[in-house]
Design brief:
38% of the residues lie in helices and 11% in strands. With 521 residues, the protein is of the alpha+beta class. Helix 2 (159-166) crosses helix 9, helix 15 (448-458) packs across helix 18 and helix 16 (468-477) crosses helix 17.
Length: 521
């Protein structure tokens, strides 16, 4: 589910291995601060959910009577959409304070596992609420058709957006950000929780103030730590996943690895383990070579590189712990991180890392919608056979079962990643056009006539250019972009800097190797 939400839903900007519910929140709270160099867990916060001594209500997810969230809150405008539901701005009737309400449709919770995941996430959010750098949980309300989770409203937006918008950046600024991220890991582990999905999009800002607190969001893949238990399910997001997860034998040390990947990105703008395919990313992670030679690394301090090396140690038993990271000379308060500005190319890389995939996904969907019957021969029958409940959409369970019937060799992780990649509108299921987009071979989708057709879809006035207004119209039609995203796309794709995208720039973007989509066959 998830933490605070900014005014826009995070785009699918890297390959996801697991589909998790995305939930959101925010209201600016003061937090107690200890005299330690890092934030100690709040001893007064609830350590575990309050036991329910009454008999659980049958056929409910939360095990209690239905409650109408509207009795306590006035539901306002939509803030964003995720895999399992919609997040709204809401106002507490008794105080007038603003929060976020994540409304999760029960129709999306198909399996028993789905329901248990939502229940566990709510328990973990309640357990962690009150800690610094972690989103505040206000309450959960289950009705006949939905589960509504009310939480803090993070009005400051996404962490990387703030970094890019400031335009100036230093090792000291990166250290301050990383300190808050690792503090989240420290608190989680101290309180018996493994996050399992740390990535930049899961950190938002409590307000628009310059000194706003960074808040961890989305505990959809988090679990309570059971000492001695070895986890084997592959979860997380590809760029940030630890090698022991890929080997299917891991513990809480994976969170330090993910935080180390984030720190690497904070200092150079791209992930340390990079490839054009998911398999390539995984292979790079397992090899574990860290590039400290390319720009800007020669100008980055040895102390910063020392910390990254210790966080990205292959052997989890030898990997640095959260408390050790927080005491590292480069990271700790008043440490030796330099205030010298970092190479401006880092911010440009970071921006590109975030912006491109959205436009490419939308363009592929436009192409798929206009393919001839000959080009998609056989795919319609395949879709119909997988859609066993004849709902017109394919759920994760239907996709997995259908692929097994077809003798597919895709792993569970690859099926989950495919589901995430194919689900363009982020509603948790794949419709027919999304299915065609995911299953067609890329060389067929990217033929010249198809690219030109997609370009014409965006170029509404046939001027030969895609303008900002035309891009905004197209992306809003699919609920896929806001002002910042559209501005970033224009900036990154428009190589001749004339403020618009011509056909050559469009084709170059579509054929670039960045985050290529996997195909089923």
């Amino acid at each position: 589910m998830g933490g605070c939400i900014s005014k826009r839903e995070s785009e699918p900007q890297q390959r996801h291995i697991a589909v998790s519910a995305r939930h959101n929140h925010n209201h600016n709270h003061n937090h107690n601060r200890s005299k330690s160099p890092y934030q100690q867990p709040n001893k007064h916060a609830p350590r575990s959910p309050t036991p329910n001594v009454q008999r659980p209500v049958i056929n409910t997810i939360l095990g209690r009577k239905f409650e109408d969230v509207r009795k306590s809150y006035t539901i306002g405008k939509e803030l964003g959409r995720g895999q399992f539901g919609v997040t709204y701005l809401c106002t507490e009737n008794s105080t007038g304070l603003k929060y976020a309400c994540k409304s999760i449709s029960k129709t999306k919770l198909v399996s028993k596992a789905d329901k248990e995941d939502i229940k566990r996430e709510i328990q973990i959010m309640q357990h962690m609420s009150g800690q610094s750098n972690i989103v505040e949980f206000k309450g959960a309300y289950e009705g006949k058709n939905s589960v509504n989770v009310v939480m803090e409203l993070c009005a400051g937006g996404e962490l990387f957006d703030r970094i890019i918008a400031k335009g100036k950046y230093s090792e000291r600024a990166a250290a301050s950000i990383c300190r808050q991220i690792v503090n989240v890991v420290h608190i989680c582990h101290f309180m018996g929780v493994m996050h399992r999905d740390l990535k930049p999009e899961n950190f938002l800002l409590s307000s628009k103030d310059d000194n706003a607190t960074i808040k961890a969001t989305d505990f959809g893949l988090s679990v309570f730590i059971e000492e001695g238990k070895v986890l084997r399910d592959v979860v997380g997001s590809a760029y940030y996943v630890a090698p022991e997860v890929l080997r299917r034998k891991y513990g809480k040390e994976i969170d330090i690895w993910s935080a180390g990947v984030i720190l690497y990105i904070l200092l150079c703008g791209v992930p340390p383990f990079w490839a054009e395919t998911e398999k390539g990313i995984f292979d790079a992670i397992l090899v574990g070579h860290i590039d400290f030679e390319s720009r800007p690394w020669p100008s980055i301090s040895n102390s910063a590189k020392d910390l990254i090396t210790k966080m990205l140690t292959q052997d989890p038993k030898k990997r640095i712990t959260a408390s050790q990271v927080l005491e590292h000379p480069w990271l700790k308060e008043g440490g030796n991180a330099s205030d010298k500005p970092i190479d401006s190319a880092v911010l440009s890389r970071m921006k590109q890392f975030r912006a491109m995939n959205k436009l490419k996904k939308l363009a592929l969907k436009v192409i798929a919608e206009n393919l001839s019957s000959e080009e998609i021969q056989g795919l319609k029958a395949m879709f119909t056979n997988m859609d066993t409940d004849k709902s017109g959409t394919i759920t994760y369970e239907e996709l997995r079962a259908g692929l097994q019937r077809l003798g597919s060799t895709l792993t569970e992780a690859e099926v989950r990643q495919l589901m995430e990649a194919a689900d363009v509108d982020g509603n948790g299921s794949i419709d027919y056009i999304e299915f065609i987009t995911a299953t067609m071979h890329r060389h067929r989708l990217e033929r010249d006539e198809h690219l030109y057709m997609a370009f014409q879809y965006f170029d509404k006035d046939n001027s030969g250019f895609i303008t900002r207004d035309e891009l905004e119209t197209a992306m809003k039609e699919y609920d896929m972009g806001d002002e910042d995203t559209i501005r970033e796309i224009i900036s990154e794709v428009d190589t001749d800097n004339d403020g618009r995208i011509n056909y050559e720039e469009f084709c170059a973007m579509m054929r670039s190797g960045v985050q290529q989509q996997v195909t089923l066959f």
